[in-house]
């Protein structure tokens, strides 16, 4: 049964914990509207936020939010729960001489989606001049919400709470629309706000006397490119030829973004209009299951030609954001939220699920990395493998695997305790010290591999090396039927990608380095104690899925794309060549010292136009996320930008 809680403190913008601090707000009354706000101003950003509440507050209750920003701030966000994810967001921007207030909700670290649990009504005082713009709005639905664990949270209107802000400086894609895309923030902050001081007399009368009537205008029609992409880059060698790739798929619509393909490859869009599509699984009947972050799991019947013939929502659960797995017999479905993993009895023919059960609890609520990847071990169908990232760029505590972060763990489903395993204390380790191993996959020998998102904003002895270091990684974890207590380096040991950036020592690609060497922890310590990656990949590419083809001659990897590099990088599907090594093992063709192992398969034509989240991505770039091969050898890929898409790829 969902519980009910008062919300008094939170995690600011998903990346760091904030403590209850000294109240930073004060009462300010507006002469035009006669509304008195509990108001906070931030001198560094030039932002001011005012909140007004009814004198009598019983959940659900309305609120007035007033945002004033410098003219060079193209958008400003206000987080009602003090964090980016899992609370309502009021995102505002100027539109002509007026403004727009958009209700958003982020279920993961991605562009916040439209939120139908709240709505805004503009009030007088919404305006723009030569130096600042202001949006003043009534919000219905902003003061209470359902959290990731399905509990009801409501702001404590008679006390203090934590709020958070963010702003951007890149243009909003279509400022006339409240569903417009916008780019990643330029800065963020948080403060402690006195809500008791925000309660005012005559709230309803003041709203009525100040209400403005506005209607968002429609966006201009965009003519997209053709349904099928067949342009050429360069040869990447042969791979397993699967079934033919369809020339087009009825009802899929045209691609939102152009793409460039390796020689001999073909890509066709098979579906659009999805909500942040992430991981993919095919069931025993060949139906495709797709996690749509913040929505649930969709079920797609795939025809013999590779196109989708019908679609339905299989599981509607907005806490699901990435992970999905199926039991070996196809009768149990698994999926993950940020904090839990669940199971359902599954009937692939009827496209139905039974009653949900909890398999794992206790995964971290918040932090920088919110997705939990799931896999069932092919050689041991009773084993569920779960990858959990760190909760910050450098999460120092994860040098101890007992934290249950930056780690891959294995859980025996045949011994599932009542209520499920606790992630940190249950199961056993399949490797730790992996900063964010979002993509995990199996080779032909049922050995586990993974791709790691490495660190951001790096220095070496104070010198900035972050643009081209550290490298992302391909890791080999091996046999998950027995514990693997190897340490893979994080949070102290990282791999060199561009040796010329380091001036204090000569390095090769793939060498270990630490940011600030000391007598107790230095590059040599890493060599002695850490397990090296199999390969290093381009920094900030953000690999988030991997799949081997049938003969294991290639590992396909989605590069989700950078936010911490100029120019941007990633936003493409790549392939890394593998070969059979000693005793039939699978190993990369190129050595650890290579920085050319990943070959482009499907890429955006101009990656400099791409950005982590926002109009550049939404109007100019697709963003690869999940991968899966069907039984015919066709490779399916999700793109999780605002108009989420499904693609099928293969060699023509």
Describe the protein.
The protein is mainly beta and 652 residues long. It folds into 2 domains: 4-210, Cellobiose dehydrogenase, cytochrome domain (Immunoglobulin-like, Sandwich), CATH 2.60.40; 228-651, TolB, C-terminal domain (Neuraminidase, 6 Propeller), CATH 2.120.10. The chain has 3 helices and 53 strands. The strands form 12 sheets. Strands 4, 5, 6, 7, 12, 13, 14 and 19 form an 8-stranded mixed beta sheet that branches. A 6-stranded antiparallel beta sheet has the order 11-10-9-8-17-18, with no helix packed on it. The N and C termini lie far apart (52 Å). Residues 1-20, 215-226 and 230-239 have low confidence and may be disordered.
Question: Could you name the key traits of this structure?
Answer:
652 residues, Neuraminidase, single chain, eight-stranded mixed sheet, six-stranded antiparallel sheet, disordered N terminus, mainly beta, 2 domains, Immunoglobulin-like
Mean pLDDT: 91
Care to count the β-strands? 53
Question: Which CATH top level class of the largest domain fits?
Answer: Mainly Beta
Query: Mind summarizing the main beta sheet?
Result: 8 strands, mixed
Pfam families: CDH-cyt, TrAA12
Domain Pyrroloquinoline quinone-dependent pyranose dehydrogenase beta-propeller: 261-651
Domain Cellobiose dehydrogenase-like cytochrome: 29-204
Protein name: Iron reductase domain protein
């Amino acid at each position: 049964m969902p519980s009910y809680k008062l919300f008094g403190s939170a995690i600011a913008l998903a990346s760091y914990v904030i403590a209850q601090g000294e109240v930073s707000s004060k009462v300010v009354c507006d002469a035009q509207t006669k509304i008195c706000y509990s108001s906070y101003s931030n001198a560094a950003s030039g932002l001011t936020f005012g909140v007004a509440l009814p004198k009598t507050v019983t959940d659900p209750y309305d609120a007035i939010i007033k945002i004033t920003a410098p003219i060079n701030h193209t958008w400003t966000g206000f987080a009602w729960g003090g964090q980016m994810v899992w609370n309502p967001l009021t995102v505002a921007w100027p539109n002509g001489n007026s403004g727009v207030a958009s209700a958003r909700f982020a279920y993961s670290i991605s562009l916040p989606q439209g939120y139908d649990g709240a709505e805004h009504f503009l009030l007088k005082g919404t305006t723009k001049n030569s130096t600042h713009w202001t949006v003043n709005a009534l919000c219905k639905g902003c003061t209470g919400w359902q959290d990731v664990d399905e509990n009801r949270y409501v702001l404590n209107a008679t006390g203090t709470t934590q709020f958070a802000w963010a702003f951007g400086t890149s243009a909003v894609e279509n400022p006339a629309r409240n569903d417009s895309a916008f780019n990643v923030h330029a800065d963020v902050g948080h403060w402690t706000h006195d809500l008791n001081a925000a309660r005012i007399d005559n709230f309803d009368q003041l709203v009525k006397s100040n209400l403005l009537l506005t209607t968002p205008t429609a966006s201009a029609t965009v003519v997209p490119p053709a349904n099928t992409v067949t342009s050429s880059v360069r040869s990447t060698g042969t791979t397993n030829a699967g079934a033919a790739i369809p020339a087009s798929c009825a009802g899929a619509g045209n691609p939102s973004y152009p793409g460039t393909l390796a020689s001999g490859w073909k890509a066709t869009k098979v579906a659009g209009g999805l909500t942040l599509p992430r991981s993919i699984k095919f069931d025993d009947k060949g139906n495709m299951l797709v996690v749509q972050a913040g929505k649930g799991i969709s079920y797609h019947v795939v025809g013999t030609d590779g196109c989708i013939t019908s679609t339905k929502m299989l599981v509607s659960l907005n806490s699901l954001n990435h992970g999905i797995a199926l039991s070996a017999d196809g009768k149990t479905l698994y999926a993950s939220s940020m904090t839990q993993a669940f199971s359902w009895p599954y009937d692939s023919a009827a496209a139905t699920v039974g009653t949900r059960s909890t398999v794992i609890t206790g995964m971290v609520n918040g932090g920088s990395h919110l997705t939990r990847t799931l896999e069932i071990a092919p050689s041991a169908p009773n084993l569920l493998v779960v990858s959990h990232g760190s909760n910050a760029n450098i999460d120092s505590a994860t040098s101890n695997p007992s934290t249950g972060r930056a780690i891959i763990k294995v859980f025996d489903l045949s011994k599932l305790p009542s209520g499920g395993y606790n992630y940190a204390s249950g199961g056993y380790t399949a490797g730790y010290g992996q900063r964010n191993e979002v993509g995990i996959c199996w080779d032909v020998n049922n050995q586990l591999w993974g791709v790691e998102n490495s660190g951001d904003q790096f220095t070496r002895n104070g010198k900035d090396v972050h643009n081209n270091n550290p490298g992302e990684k391909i890791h080999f974890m091996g046999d998950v039927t027995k514990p693997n207590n190897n340490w893979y380096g994080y949070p102290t040991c990282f791999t060199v990608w561009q040796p010329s950036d380091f001036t204090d020592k000569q390095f090769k690609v793939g060498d270990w380095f630490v940011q600030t060497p000391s007598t107790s922890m230095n590059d040599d310590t890493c060599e002695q104690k850490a397990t090296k990656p199999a390969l290093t990949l381009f920094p900030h590419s953000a690999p988030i899925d991997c799949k081997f083809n049938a003969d294991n001659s290639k590992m396909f990897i989605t590069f989700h794309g950078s936010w911490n590099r100029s120019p941007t990088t990633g936003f493409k599907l790549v392939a890394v060549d593998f070969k059979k090594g000693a005793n039939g093992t699978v190993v990369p063709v190129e050595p650890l010292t290579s920085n050319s192992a990943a070959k482009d398969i499907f890429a955006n034509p101009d990656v400099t136009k791409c950005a982590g989240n926002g109009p550049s991505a939404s109007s100019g770039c697709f963003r690869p996320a999940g991968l899966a091969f069907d039984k015919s050898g066709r490779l399916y890929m999700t793109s999780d930008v605002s108009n989420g898409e499904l693609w099928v790829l293969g060699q023509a």
